[in-house]
Amino acid sequence: MNQISDEGYITADGRKIGAVMMEMKNITLRFGGVKAITDISFDIRQGEIRAIIGPNGAGKSSMLNVISGFYIPQEGEVWFHGKKRAPMRPFQVAQQGIARTFQNIALFEGMSVLDNVMTGRLTHMKSGMLSQAIWKGKAEREEVANREVVEKVIDFLEIQAIRKTPVARLPYGLKKRVELARALAAEPKLLLLDEPMAGMNVEEKEDMSRFILDVNDEFGTTIALIEHDMGVVMDLSDRVVVMDYGKKIGDGTPDEVRNNQNVIDAYLGVAHD
Amino acid sequence: MAQSSQATGGLTSIPALLQRNATEFANRSAYREKEFGIWQSWTWAQTAQEIDSLALGLINLGVNEGDFIAVIGRNRPHLYWSMVAAQSVGAIPVPLYQDASAEEMAYVLDHCGARFVIAEDQEQVDKVIEVQQGLHQFEHMIYLDPRGMRKYDHSQLHEFSHVQEQGHAARDELTHELKARRGKLDYASVCVMLYTSGTTGKPKGVVLSNRNVIESAKNSVEFDHLKPDEELLAYLPMAWVGDFIFSLGQAYWAGFCVNCPESPETLAVDLREIGPTCYFAPPRVFETQLTNVMIRMEDATRMKKRMFDYFMAHAKKVGPDILDGKPVGGLDRLKYALGNLFIYGPLKNTLGLTRVRVGYTAGEAIGPEIFDFYRSLGINLKQLYGQTEATVFITAQPDGEVRSDTVGVPAPGVELKIGDNGEVYYRSPGVFEYYYKNPESTADTKDAEGWVATGDAGFIEPGSGHLRIIDRAKDVGKMADGSLFAPKYVENKLKFYPNILEAVVFGNNRDKCVAFINIDLSAVGNWAERNNIAYSSYQELAGHPKVLDAVRLHVEEVNRSVAEDEMLSGCQVHRFLILHKELDADDGEMTRTRKVRRRIVEDKFADLIGGLYDGSDEIFTKTEVTYEDGRKGHISATLKLMDAAVVPVTTHKVAAE
């Protein structure tokens, strides 16, 4: 990787990465007496694929929840687009253009794929409850416009064949894809993926990797992801943050991280003699 | 016939037919495609504009008359337009199978020397780029779907819509040229080149003229009384002659609408939404559909299941007769009408076949049970016998003369004769011009008087005049004792069981026949599920003792049925095995149209055949497999070799000799 300047950098495969989009400054998160995250700082840049990795219990999901505004850290600041972010409710975060998927799928099981993905457009609907109920004028126009966005996402993720299928009937790998579709339907600037490949077979992982790369490439979406599968992380991401016991032990390109002694120790264990 | 007289009035090419349709049917739908969840449609007038823009764009890119333009992708309106645009500028469209591997494509692209390729998406573009080093004549590629293409080097790559825009922008300078080139097209000019699937050896490029295509389209449209308001669903490979004739030839001649599905996976839903009036499918599609219906009925409630069984039994009894307009009693008719209300109607609706007026199946023999099932529902399913070299039609079944064991009478304009060795020959206006760059094969296939050898052995039934096909002529052989060996005949009987997907019978010059079997994973898998049989892979299920026993019963039933035929009673299967892998086109064991390549299977599994003949009980084997992405791997298995009871036939032979 070239030197990172304020404006950004060029990745190994020649993509242009922009300025800092989100910056975490000295974040500390406590649950009672337990410190989940201790004094962590890192940034996420415009257009990059940023991974957070670490062994079980390292605090990765907590970190993602801080980014998504679900947890409010006791210490430290979250800066988004050059402004310090005040504590806010999850829907306000969504309105800022951040969307996420969940480690243990959180879809509406009884609803069709289409309806589930439509819920991703919620923050883009402005018409009032009354006009939605009567289904005339603005509400109708809005629904058509939103459906168009949703259909493009469905086409993009190649899930046309299950458009009308209730989510409960789908296999796990497809549910994951539907979750991604819902997040994409929000047209996010920053997409958070919590273990997008967990529990998938090789083929499903390959598909998901391709979709993640395509999303980044086609829409220029910035992506932050947590993942266990090292092969996937190293192939996908531009920069990696490594956490262990709530602390940051490494940060850099996949190659840098791979050769970082702290990281090797954390993953392979150290001999105590 | 008003249209026949028009044929002499200048309608001697597909682009000329397009011009006629654009004025005569200007506001009727010509194409529909489901995209973004909605059926998008184009009228004939819009279609003509789209094709003109593209044709101008092609001239702009430097396409010359006589150039070959390869078209690769699934059925999409834009790719059909590409073929007509190519014809409009005097070039020759060459549709390719979209699931062909890069090497297979390389052979065809090199053989025809395509200067231009029109590809559907990144997947197809990647394949061509992979092999383009070896293609000296290749110059430009046009792609339809821009997804993922942004980072490619665009010095030789062009987006479809841009080519159209550039063509449209340059219309003032180029329209004259386009008109001049289109004006030169006549009955003798080349309409399309289609590659045969290559059951034996390398694929051959079959050159079809406008005369071949338009005459065949005209005759078949008249034969089945197709009108401008027909709806067709185009889903079979564009490289296949049938699709070219149905979706282009017939559609342009009759002026009806071609519908393209959203994706291959949504086919069933799209079929229901469109409700086509003409429907063409190979027997395999009907088999799969029927298997699915039966599987779902097994899971239905008892009430529904009993109603289904009751009314289906009645349909079997009187349905085909009602369809053929034969006399049927009033009570039976009433019961059939009730069945139609409760069972047949809803079932046809689920299958998307409610409006089918003309349904055809061809390519392989269809099981009588499957055939009768559809006909008993009131679906006018008929059989057709054809070849690329004949521009599809050799024989077809007229309404009211439909049977599962024949392929019908000669299609309009076709003459038939049976050679001394039993091979079927035909002569018709659809007979192809020549094989591209292959005069020897042309001479072997087509004689000076225009008779073409089909390569199939058969006979014309005395009385009805229907043609019956026995087998591929070169596959028909002799057993060691001199009796007739016709493997396909036995294989078809085996394949009619839902559990058996594919069968290959060996026995030429041997004293007895043996067989390889592929089980049908969906049918056998469902059976296993209902009987609490656990399995983790195809291979494991294929080797399960209960599956082996079930298949043995099928084989023995087939043996009894084969024994009844005096001529072929020697073909009973003495021993068989269930293969550990499905025969696959990626491994070269089948053609892309899913016909078994007998010789290759015989060579590849020679060890297994040896085992079947030397009497051993089981055999260990290791087979190379090719994955979809071209990587190779090995699978190994120990296969059980099974004995099957045969019916003694010695008495027959004494009588025959």
Characterization of the model:
The complex is a heterodimer of chains A (273) and B (657). Chain A has 273 residues and is of the alpha/beta class. Chain A is 36% helix and 25% strand. Chain A has a domain at 9-97 and 188-268: Rossmann fold. In chain A, the strands form 3 sheets. Chain A has a 6-stranded mixed β-sheet, sandwiched between helices. A 4-stranded antiparallel β-sheet of chain A has the order 4-3-6-7, covered by helices on one side. In chain A, strands 1-2 form a two-stranded antiparallel sheet. Chain B is α/β, with parallel strands linked by helices. Chain B folds into 3 domains: 2-280, ANL, N-terminal domain (Rossmann fold), CATH 3.40.50.12780; 283-429 and 441-472, Luciferase, domain 3, CATH 2.30.38.10; 477-656, 2-Layer Sandwich (GMP Synthetase, Chain A, domain 3), CATH 3.30.300.30. In chain B, α3 (44-61) crosses α7 and α5 (102-112) crosses α6. A 5-stranded parallel β-sheet of chain B has the order 4-3-5-6-7, with helices on both faces. A 5-stranded mixed β-sheet of chain B has the order 12-13-14-15-16. In chain B, α4 links the parallel β3 and β4 (92-96).
CATH architecture identity of the domain at 9-97 and 188-268 in chain A: 3-Layer(aba) Sandwich
User: What is the percentage of strand-forming residues of chain B?
Assistant: 15-25%
CATH level-4 homologous superfamily of the domain at 9-97 and 188-268 in chain A: P-loop containing nucleotide triphosphate hydrolases
User: Which outline of chain B best applies?
Assistant: globular
Kindly report the name of the CATH homologous superfamily of the largest domain in chain B: ANL, N-terminal domain
Strand order of the largest sheet of chain B: 4-3-5-6-7
Please tally the helical runs of chain B, counting DSSP H or I stretches of 4 or more residues. Answer: 23
The CATH topology of the domain at 9-97 and 188-268 in chain A is given as Rossmann fold
What does the radius of gyration of chain B come to?
Answer: 26 Å
The secondary-structure class of chain A comes to alpha/beta
Architecture of the largest domain in chain B in CATH? 3-Layer(aba) Sandwich
Organism (chain A): Thalassovita taeanensis
Pfam families (chain A): ABC_tran, BCA_ABC_TP_C
Protein name (chain A): Amino acid/amide ABC transporter ATP-binding protein 1, HAAT family
InterPro entries (chain A): AAA+_ATPase (IPR003593), ABC_AA/LPS_Transport (IPR051120), ABC_transporter-like_ATP-bd (IPR003439), BCA_ABC_TP_C (IPR032823), P-loop_NTPase (IPR027417)
